Amino acid sequence: MNQYSRIFSGIKPIDKLHIGHYHGIIKHWLDWQYEHECFFMVADLHALATKYIDPKDIKFFVKDMVINWLATGVDPSQATIFVQSQIPEHYQLHLLLSMITPLSWLERELGDKDRHIDNMSFSNQDTYGLLGYSLLQSVDMLLYDAKYAGVVEEQVSRVELTREIARRFNHLYGREFGFEEKARASIKKLGAKKADLYEVLLTAYQQEGDEEALDKARYLLADAVNLSLGEQERLFAFLENKSKVIMSEPQEIIYNSNLLLGLDGQGESRSANNVIYLREGIDSINRKIRSMPTDPARVRITDVGNPDKCPVWELHKIYSDSKTCEWVRNGCVTAGIGCLECKKPLIEAIDIEQQKILANASPYLEDDNLITNILADGAERAQEIAAEKLIKIKEEMSLNY
């Protein structure tokens, strides 16, 4: 990753954040915010894709999420924290890009993972919001000219879609009006023999990737004394099929999805009660950890086990020091310790972490204005960037009248 790049990432406010979010996503943010220009977004418009029938909980989850971000160390003086719906440019660019995005691109992205998103069912799932969900994600990245986008592995295709949309936009609007016609007119000025050669070299490079043909064509143009400098530059651009970069193509940074799994090693689920939420109480943590499944081979305390087949071991790798991890592994493979004994240091480590987060959250829980002001400052900064970008996009689309 390049030094001091712009990074974009966001989370939907559809539930409380859990320890998987903290270790799988937010800890990356804590490192990035001091080394890069970071935009961290509460994706409440995305939440409406599945919460549109009963959206009243979104407001609670927005506040709760931001409190957890701040309590775990996200610094609003270092990163821009904002709520998606408070930036009107997201709505506007979503509409504009819907005019140029092929329907097949969106249908390709609309897979089972979206139709059953958040494990919820609806009377009518076939909404435009669900179809345009991936386009709205592209808008989020493109508005801020993000160099990188932090995503989980199953969302990598969304970043690829974003790059496709950026390339399509640049191709459609990144050239002067009548570019190809002007380029063809410039080719004729080369003279019949050189024009024919240019066409041959053009085809060889663009269709076959012949780098030698590219070099020959460049030499041909550099030696064309009957072309103006502007005409030469136009034919150089025509040769390399270049257009002005209006929208940047982001690259993905992939979060470790394994850290987002539930306590049973399956996908996290509120209904399955298989996650530990941030700021959860010790009694609840103790109950959940003690009831976690372990290696199925350990039916009796005297049975040896394999830590690599145990979801408890995955948490030890996050929370326990090397000495404790060695104790756990040796005790498991030799049946030297029981599963409940193995879980005790894990419960203690998680509780210590939670107590720190609870203490950090206290000022924000006591004073709502702190959150309101932080989000207002973030929205002002985000909209400044987004508005400037949208003006440029509208100008390229001839919507500046």
The sequence of SSEs as H and E is: EHEHHEHHHHHEHHHHHEHHHHH
Question: DSSP helix count?
Answer: 18
Tell me the quaternary state.
single chain
Question: Strand pairing plus helix content: what structural class?
Answer: alpha/beta
Looking at the structure, what is the overall shape?
elongated
Question: Whole-number average pLDDT?
Answer: 90
The CATH topology annotation of the largest domain reads as Rossmann fold
Could you walk me through the main structural features you see in this protein, from its secondary elements to its overall organization?
By secondary structure, the protein is an alpha/beta fold. The protein folds into three domains: 211 residues, 3-Layer(aba) Sandwich (Rossmann fold), CATH 3.40.50.620; 61 residues, no CATH class; 85 residues, Tyrosyl-Transfer RNA Synthetase, CATH 1.10.240.10. It is built from 18 helices and five strands. It has a five-stranded parallel sheet with strand order 3-2-1-4-5, with helices on both faces. The protein is elongated, with a radius of gyration of 27 Å.
Observed structural traits:
single chain; 401 residues; alpha/beta; Rossmann fold; Tyrosyl-Transfer RNA Synthetase; 6% strand
